[in-house]
Design a protein that fits this description.
Number of helices: 5
Radius of gyration: 13 Å
Helix content: 40-55%
Order of helices and strands: HEHEHEEHH
Strand order of the largest sheet: 2-1-3-4
Shape: globular
Number of domains: 1
Distance between the termini: 34 Å
CATH architecture: 3-Layer(aba) Sandwich
Structural class: alpha+beta
CATH topology: Glutaredoxin
Strand content: 15-25%
């Protein structure tokens, strides 16, 4: 499968997906670590792709949404941004609202 088609399928097929260096349990860079932690604190499930383990994604994702760096967070098929934007949204409470809406939970429901 074409790498861009595969990325599109991942982004559109998962309500919340984080492209990061490493995994949420073992991040391989500080920016990926902070972004994954913010998502975990939102209390919703999210998918992730370790770009270091998938060379095609690593090479092609920056072209997919014209965003040159990692991590990249997508919610409901739309690029949210990288670490700085994600952290800003988390601090204002917007990330929690966005992720809970995408996951289909209400604010009081995030106890899974």
């Amino acid at each position: 499968m074409d790498p861009l088609a595969r990325i599109k399928e991942q982004v559109e097929g998962t309500p919340i997906v984080l492209y990061m260096k490493g995994t949420p349990q073992l991040p391989q860079c500080g920016f990926s670590s902070r972004t994954a932690q913010a998502l975990q604190q939102c209390g919703v499930e999210f998918g992730y792709i370790n770009v270091l383990a998938d060379q095609e994604v690593y090479e092609n994702l920056p072209n997919y949404a014209d965003w040159p760096t990692f991590p990249q967070l997508y919610i409901n098929g739309e690029l949210v941004g990288g670490c700085d934007i994600t952290m800003e949204l988390f601090q204002t409470g917007e990330l929690q609202k966005m992720t809970q809406a995408a996951a289909g939970t209400s604010e009081g429901d995030a106890s899974e």
